[in-house]
Amino acid sequence: MKSKITEIMKEMRNGETQQKVATGLNISREALSSYETGRAKVPQDVSQNLMSKFQDPWFAFAIRNEYTKTGPVRLNGPNFDSHRSAVREKTIEEVKEVLVTLEAFSFAKPLQNISEWERPKAKLLAEHIIEAVTALEHTLAVLCDEAGLSYNEEWQEHYTQLKVKGYLI
């Protein structure tokens, strides 16, 4: 799958010059150009600064996928409807599906000991979880984009709550 980082970086600039964005990131225009054209990979500190500056959830998707080859990618195929109500409905459908599959799959014994006939059920559950995560992440991105919420701040508040609840140190 082709990297979307270069395309998204150009979109994020939204008409701003490379020089202006590069100055704001404390990098050279040439460095920004090399990231935007794919001649060089975006370093971690630059990607974090880009997220801080632009708060673009689609860039977060692209960066995560580029470096880990995991996580949702921005859907853009002919069967994807990006309107907020369609994204919402698809998310509801996927979450219901994963709940049904999760309730039907037993975690009573250690999962490394599941039988060969249970393995397809585990695989189906994994597939449904990934579909739900993809739908939920798209819903969050659309919500932040259209409601003017900060994608970064929403995640930071979540991390703070996880610490308060004792789930993170």
Task: Give the helix level as a range of percent.
Answer: 55-70%
- In terms of quaternary structure, the protein is single chain
Spans of 5+ residues with little confidence (pLDDT < 50)? none
Q: Whole-number average pLDDT?
A: 95
Total helical elements: 8
- In this structure, how is the largest beta sheet organized? none
List SSEs in N-to-C order: HHHHHHHH
Q: Choose one word for the global shape.
A: elongated
Q: Tell me the radius of gyration.
A: 19 Å
Instruction: Give the total of domains.
Output: 2
**Number of distinct beta strands:** 0
End-to-end Cα distance, whole Å, is: 36 Å
Q: Strand portion, in percent?
A: under 5%
Class from helix and strand fractions: mainly alpha
List keywords for this structure.
0% strand; 2 domains; 169 residues; mainly alpha; 434 Repressor (Amino-terminal Domain)
Please outline the helices and strands.
Blueprint: H1 5-13, H2 18-25, H3 29-36, H4 44-54, H5 57-68, H6 84-104, H7 119-147, H8 151-164
In words, what does this structure look like?
The chain is mainly α and 169 residues long. The chain folds into 2 domains: 5-68, 434 Repressor (Amino-terminal Domain), CATH 1.10.260; 84-164. The protein has 8 helices and no strands. The chain has helices spanning 5-13, 18-25, 29-36, 44-54, 57-68, 84-104, 119-147, 151-164. Helix 1 (5-13) packs antiparallel against helix 5 and helix 2 (18-25) crosses helix 3 (29-36). The two termini are 36 Å apart. The mean pLDDT is 95.
